Structure to design on (82 residues):
């Protein structure tokens, strides 16, 4: 029930090599290495692209959606118009 012995791992390795072939495994590992290199390159480019100083944020603006004429009317007048 514990971990496998060295013979178990050797047999599993041989089965994997027989199923996938030696060429496919090396191609797969090469693709993994390329992916890791491109990931590291992308992470280093992100660090260089940070701006030196951040601009202060603009104050929050509110938008009044009601037209000016509706603001002057009483609520009863607005209900009659609708």
């Amino acid at each position: 029930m514990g971990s496998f012995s060295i013979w178990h791992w050797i047999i599993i390795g041989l089965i994997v090599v027989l199923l996938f072939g030696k060429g496919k495994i090396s191609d797969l590992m090469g693709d993994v290495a390329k992916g890791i290199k491109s990931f590291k390159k992308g992470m280093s480019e992100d660090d260089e692209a940070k701006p030196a100083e951040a601009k202060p944020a603009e104050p929050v603006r509110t938008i009044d959606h009601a037209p000016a004429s509706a603001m002057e009317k009483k609520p009863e007048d607005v209900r009659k118009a609708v």
Remarks:
- The two ends are 78 Å apart (CA to CA).
